[in-house]
Amino acid sequence: MTHVRLQSEGQRLVLDQCDQSREFTALWLRERSSDPQTRDPRTGQRLIEAAELPLDLRLESAESVDHALRLHFSDGHRCDFPLQELLDEAVDPPQRLWDAASAPAPRADFSAALHDDAALLAMLEALQRDGFVMVSGVPGEEDGMRPLIDRIGPLRRTNWGGIADVKSVANAYDLTMTQRGLEPHTDNPYRDPIPGYIWLHCLANAAEGGDSTLADGFMAARLLRERNPEAFDCLSQVRPGFRYRDDTTHLESEGPLIELDSHGEPMRVRYSNRTERMPALAPDVLDAYFAARRAFHELITGEELTLHLKLDPGQMLIIDNYRLLHGRRAYQLAGGVRHMRQGYVDRDSTASRRRVLRRQAETNASGEPA
Known about the structure:
- The protein is of the alpha+beta class.
- It has two domains: 2-87, NE0471 N-terminal domain-like (2-Layer Sandwich), CATH 3.30.2020.30; 107-355, Clavaminate synthase-like (Double-stranded beta-helix, 4-Layer Sandwich), CATH 3.60.130.
- 26% of the residues lie in helices and 30% in strands.
- It has nine helices and 24 strands.
- The chain has helices at residues 26-31, 83-87, 110-115, 117-130, 146-152, 217-227, 229-237, 283-301, 347-366, and strands at 2-7, 12-17, 20-25, 59-65, 68-73, 78-82, 107-109, 132-136, 155-156, 164-166, 182-185, 197-205, 208-209, 212-216, 241-245, 250-254, 258-260, 266-269, 276-277, 307-309, 316-320, 324-328, 331-332, 338-345.
- The strands form seven sheets. Strands 7, 8, 9, 10, 12, 21 and 24 form a seven-stranded mixed sheet that branches.
- Strand 1 and strand 2 (12-17) form a beta hairpin.
- The longest helix is centred in the C-terminal third of the chain and has 20 residues, at 347-366.
- The two termini are 27 Å apart.
- The relative contact order is 0.16.
């Protein structure tokens, strides 16, 4: 049962439900109205100029009618606002942060995700919740993961092409193409935009070593805030630069190691020891930054947060590049070949696919026409 009440002379609407209250302003409700005079019925895009609505707009009345709010505004506008749309304003489910002891094991099957919407939705929701998912049954061809990428969104092309090799080569143009171990890092912080998701497909992994590591950067940020708030504040404010350069490419960008959203919560982590280029800031700022970076480094490289795994041929990791840090142990080719294929998919197309599939699943469950 939802109770509706007005406050502040009608400029605020309050919904009381299950011992919780949510408050909305009259002006926000007016510009979100879905009636055909306010929004185009086909596109859902706004037809009125929201910036021209009266700043002192208020609600004359509000009542709950058949799972909707019947609203009457002071400018004469009337509309029925779907009640559930207000209650579900936070679209995405919460993320589940983890350390090594509580690390999840989200799994998906390539063929099922490729052919079944429910399986694909489950894979994408696991990716959003846990920051990674392990996919099995990927075809052994060099571009074997491409059909599933195409079902979600366009493959992100970079100066390395689309799906690229990750294996040891002579005259390597990047340290990923060597046998050395790689410290925990996020990919490509020198790009704008930074690639959202890493797809890493194993074709062969018989080399000695070469195990992959994952660490939840959001959990690291949470622990840093609890244990060393000064370091957390420093890493969310100071903006190091990052650069990649070769004979044909020169990429540069900047941003904090811990980027916060409008609520002050981590929304992206950056960490790339190989490509970071810290500007010559004031000495006291640099002293604080270097100490804070070390504290963060100790967290993301420590066993408390590090998940170890080794991909088998036909397996693939999909990794949230805004949240997780990944790395690998050094390997020796005496035991055999280590050959991975890697591609990127951006966040907007991935989130869009997940939300559309979720909406369709909810529509089918309710029995309403799609």
